[in-house]
């Protein structure tokens, strides 16, 4: 039976139904009224907006507040109560603040299938970060430990970020020294999404944009001076990602890597075929092995290294002689075994028919760059290397007025040694004799003293060792003024795109001039300010130069010890090749000197020229322009340290190309540590997530942020052809 309207189940009409409805409506109106009254007292809209603010908005608010504080503090130069510099000490943070996003991102089979999930994750992560920041903001001041003496004033690191004011302290920039104007391009496209593609280039997984610009190489008028091996950077740097070799796997750890590497990581056999008999490299199943030999030391580098010190004891490996330049290094076994003598070697060789020799070196965990002695100066300051070494490096030192040997003279420290092991030293073939006679004449004109010429009976080679003078007396009394002395206006430190000059730079003689004295022995030189840093000079961060140097070192010791080594979950046993992308004084590298790593310190050409200081303390590095690609093979660094470099690059370069370059030089599973402005950190986090990197940690305080990310193995399926890199 059908039930009537408003009927009970038993069929009887409800006599109280209307009154019940009236009561419910009345209660409803009352509740609405209460809600409206509550809304008038609490701005609901504002509450919702605040809870849903993006992380970048929260951090931007902090930045504006901080800038107001900085302005106030600047008005009172004697104020000693400025905020403590942010040091990323895990002991200072709440448990939630130190939480990382430790869930690895699975490598997708199809990027589009994961877009929705990725967006959902980003929303959840953004909420988590906002909650974390809220907790940090609520902390009372006394909960944050504050030191009485600050490393650098301003918790927002205003001085750290703006050190280029007042002509960069006491130092010019490399760009100014080299009299080169850097061409910059402003990247104004504020993208919210990123679509990456793989580079379709002839070099494939070995692509180096500035060395594989085949279009520029084809247009060269001459290759007589190895112009085709020099840098030819494209005007439009690539924004694509370099492919991986098939079968690529995580690099073997040091020191085992010195003896063997995975074949599939550097799948080249040509060098093994032509140099295997000299114990350069051999193929052994799934490995490439390195017996430790070379053209001049077939029976091992260590015997050869010790032989050099035996014939000239003043060389004193690891004490007097700490920083070495190895010209035409091959697979860099010489530099690799000098680590056993506490010596740091900058090895270089061109990307030439000796297939992937520098790539072999870096995969082994040995410092090296792709470079050639051609028509331009090498990217190093003058008077910084303790020793320059050449073992059959195939460089014609004696031709064209000795221009190439004069470039070594520019970089060699007064009192430093040139170690030359080549056939003209010990063979009597007509060509060798002719070269030896030319070298005798040239080295005499350079006032180099021949310290020893000796025969290594084991390796059956000869070694000649010369020493550069400590004074200008010989230069002024030469019977012939060839090569001539350089003009006073010729700065020996100018090294970025500067043509070679066939002239001799005078030796500094003033007591406070760099190069007039030998540095302290290693390791004391790592910690002490160089003698030529004067209190009258203004340092990068605004203090007297020696004080600036010391403060920088103390700062990085604290950060490295309290945060990087023990507080971030980095497995340092997998870290060997490290780059500091903005080195300043080299304090970060000095703080790592007891670790089993080496650090390539980069001084950008438009930054204060502090690279000589880095060399003086027994470390090394080079000049570079981060608007261009670096002269290294892909996948060669285990850890990149970027202290306030991304925000600077974004102002003047193609930012997406810079991100692609970071991806190119970092190995899969490698770590990138970024310290920068909060808004930059937020943008970087989004960009690296779009490449499926794992975010290990993000943290912010005031306007400063820290980001730790680990590169994945993901590569896009779609490719883009780079016309200038196609043969």
Q: Would you kindly provide a written description of the structure presented here, covering whatever features stand out?
A:
This protein has 727 residues and is α/β, with parallel strands linked by helices. Among the domains are: 276 residues, Rossmann fold (3-Layer(aba) Sandwich), CATH 3.40.50; 183 residues, 3-Layer(aba) Sandwich (Rossmann fold), CATH 3.40.50. The protein contains 24 helices and 19 strands. It has a seven-stranded mixed beta sheet. Helix 3 packs antiparallel against helix 24. The chain is globular. The N terminus is likely disordered.
Can you count the helices? 24
Largest sheet: 7 strands, mixed
- Overall mean pLDDT: 81
Indicate the radius of gyration in whole angstroms: 31 Å
Structural class designation = alpha/beta
Per CATH, which architecture of the domain at 165-243 and 524-720?
3-Layer(aba) Sandwich
- Beta strands, count: 19
How much helical structure, as a percent, in the residues? 25-40%
Reading off the top of the CATH hierarchy, the class of the domain at 165-243 and 524-720 is best stated as: Alpha Beta
Q: Report strand %.
A: 15-25%
Looking across the biggest beta sheet, what order are the strands in?
7-6-5-8-9-11-10
* CATH fold assignment of the domain at 165-243 and 524-720: Rossmann fold
